[in-house]
Structure to design on (422 residues):
């Protein structure tokens, strides 16, 4: 079944799902008029605090946008923004600071001829995953070679110290084919390319838990949401891929099924970033956006009371770090509330605003030192706390934290599944 995203669906028409419609690019830019130059975003920006090279979100965002609306300007500031979203989350006047900077980044990319070779590779984790998955042992051997990583860094600009994940092949799909589906309420699970190619245990835990709670789980698409492309400003490459994913998820959304995801980054992209960056705000795109939700938020809302009576003790010291993209969901930290339902757990919350990696930002050799500085407070907290386990909802954050600290880092849903003894 194909549902093409039409030009009419990219406009600013009415909301098809009865929810607050995400902003389109024009609406994002108009929020610059709300900026009062209070400097709150400046004082909270982790990148501006880590390097003097970045003038801060106020200057790179609404202040510069006022000039961009008049004439083309030569600038580099948008490229130094990590897109963590802290500035938008603390703004008292609802200025879409991060999105304004990302739109400016895309304009720069169009004018300067595209992204670097290294960024083009990072922008295609699904392709890299498929290639590496053909012979995972060989791919992982190459990724584990320090000398090969150094050569690759010279050729691509991808830092030799970047936290690359291990290839898993298509283990999640193989497991799902042999998994007995429940007979309860239909629900769709969107694993994304991280679960599909690198982190299958997250998807397996999610499906097991949902099945145990009485759902009949299907996984209609494992496509990449293309957030790396969007974050780096490569909108032209992201557009057809976003349309493909929307069309793959559309039949389940049109049937009224909830679509849950285990990546806060992927779900936020479908929920609001396709609208903010590509203008996909209506019709089929809006229906899909309204159906997609974070799995922890879903479980807390629908099954919080039930889970409270069904979880067994887990005697572990756990530190939870809420990823940057979670802020954009405006749902608080539902994983924290779920974890507090587990008997015996000793839970500590991260005091850091960002782990530093910010998607693919910390993979760029030119930005690696900034990323490390941004994430230092979290890594220091983990070193002091000495937890048995670190939990985080975002895959790139987990890979970064685990490499930097040497402590296992899992998705909260994995610990929930452990507590359910599935």
């Amino acid at each position: 079944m194909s549902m093409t995203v039409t030009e009419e669906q990219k406009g600013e028409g009415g909301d098809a799902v009865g929810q607050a419609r995400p902003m389109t690019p024009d609406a994002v830019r108009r929020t610059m008029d709300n900026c009062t130059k209070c400097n709150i975003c400046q004082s909270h920006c982790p990148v501006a605090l880590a390097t003097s090279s970045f003038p801060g979100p106020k200057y790179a965002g609404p202040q510069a946008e006022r000039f961009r609306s008049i004439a083309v300007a030569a600038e580099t500031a948008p490229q130094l923004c990590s897109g963590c979203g802290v500035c938008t989350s603390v703004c008292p006047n609802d200025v879409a600071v991060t999105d304004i900077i990302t739109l400016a980044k895309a304009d720069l990319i169009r004018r300067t001829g595209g992204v670097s070779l290294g960024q083009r590779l990072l922008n295609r984790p699904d392709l890299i995953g498929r290639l590496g998955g053909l012979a995972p042992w060989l791919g992982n051997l190459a990724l584990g070679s320090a000398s090969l990583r150094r050569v690759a860094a010279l050729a691509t600009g991808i830092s030799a110290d970047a936290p690359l994940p291990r290839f898993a092949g298509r283990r999640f799909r193989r497991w799902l084919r042999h998994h007995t589906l429940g007979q309860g309420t239909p629900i769709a699970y969107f694993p994304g390319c991280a679960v599909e190619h690198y982190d299958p245990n997250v998807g397996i835990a999610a499906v097991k838990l949902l099945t145990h709670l009485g759902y009949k789980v299907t996984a209609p698409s494992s496509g990449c949401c293309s957030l790396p492309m969007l974050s780096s400003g490569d909108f032209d490459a992201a557009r057809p891929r976003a349309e493909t994913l929307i069309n793959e998820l559309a039949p389940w959304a049109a049937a009224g099924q909830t679509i849950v995801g285990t990546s806060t980054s992927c779900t936020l992209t479908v929920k609001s970033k396709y609208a903010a960056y590509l203008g996909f705000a209506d019709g089929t795109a809006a229906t899909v956006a309204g159906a997609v939700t974070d799995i922890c938020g879903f479980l807390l809302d629908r099954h919080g009371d039930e889970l409270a009576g069904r979880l067994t003790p887990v005697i572990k010291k756990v530190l939870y770090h809420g990823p940057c993209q979670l802020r954009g969901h405006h749902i608080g930290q539902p994983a924290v509330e779920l974890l507090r339902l587990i008997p015996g757990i000793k839970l500590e919350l991260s005091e850091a605003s960002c782990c530093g990696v910010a998607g693919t930002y910390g993979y760029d050799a030119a930005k690696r030192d900034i990323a490390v500085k941004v994430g230092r407070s979290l890594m220091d907290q983990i070193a002091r706390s000495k937890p048995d386990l670190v939990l985080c909802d975002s895959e790139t954050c987990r890979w970064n934290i685990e490499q930097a600290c040497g402590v296992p880092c899992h998705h909260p849903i994995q610990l929930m599944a452990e507590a359910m003894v599935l």
